[in-house]
Amino acid sequence: MKRQLDPLGANWSFFDAWRHAPPGLPVGRMIDRELTQGELGCFSSHYVAWQWFVEQSEADQLVILEDDTVLDPDFFLAIDEWTHALEQVDMVRLYGQKFRRWSRLRRIRNKRLVRYFEAPTGTQAYILTRRGAMRLLRSIKRIERPIDDELNRFWAHGVLPMALFPYPVIECCGPSSATMGDRRRGQMTPGVALQYHAHRLAEDLRRLACNIRLAVTQHRLSD
What is the CATH T-level fold of the domain 2-184, as seen in this structure? Predict the structure, then answer.
């Protein structure tokens, strides 16, 4: 990362990763297995970075890059222009792990600003505004799922899944430390299984309702 960023003249620094939950943020479970140690550390690292941004930084936007990424140097040489163009968008992903259906909002230079109907997963690279960070922090009361899944819940925290496409960042090949640990699904009792599947259904319905509201709003604006 240092070899990539130093030649660009960017104002950047390393942020030390966390291995345990931040003070005052309990750990629960809303998936069909326990979080791995890597997933807990990844969630905590992003959460504490948002806290630092809101409480200690004077910047209006923060670019977060995980250390297993390859950057498009031309994009990051012009990062000030990009952040200025995106200053009204709470969060813009610069990479996503999955292909999702999207709605194209507008063209910015040689890229499209898109909104996904289902978030593309991944925390490798994104631009976050102060307002977006505050919304995320307010919505999270417990660590109950991987950070990717938490960010995907735009209907809960109000930070819409926006992205620049084509992505200016790619992920390096190789294993991720976030997935290290036991990811085997344990045996669930019938009651726990019913609660889990009911929660999944409720989440899907909330996502659908949010997408319908956004589609109606976008249609009215285009009219």
Answer: Spore Coat Polysaccharide Biosynthesis Protein SpsA; Chain A (3.90.550)
Locate the domains of the chain by residue range: 2-184, 187-223
- 8 Å CB contact between 78 and 117: no
pTM of the model: 0.84
| Gap between the Cα atoms of 25 and 48, Å rounded | 11
**β-pairing, 91-93 with 162-165?**
parallel
Residue 166 preceded by cis peptide, ω within 30? yes
Q: How many CB atoms lie within 10 A of CB 40?
A: 21
Do you know the residue count of the chain?
223
Token pair of 223, please? 């009219």
- Angle formed at CA 124 by CA 64 and CA 102, multiple of 5 degrees: 105
DSSP assignment string, 123-165: -SEEEEEHHHHHHHHHH-SSB-S-HHHHHH-HHHH----EEEE
SS3 state of residue 165 = strand
**How confident is the model over 65-99, as pLDDT tens digits?**
999 999 999 999 999 999 999 999 999 999 999 88
Helix (H, G, I), strand (E, B) or coil at 14: coil
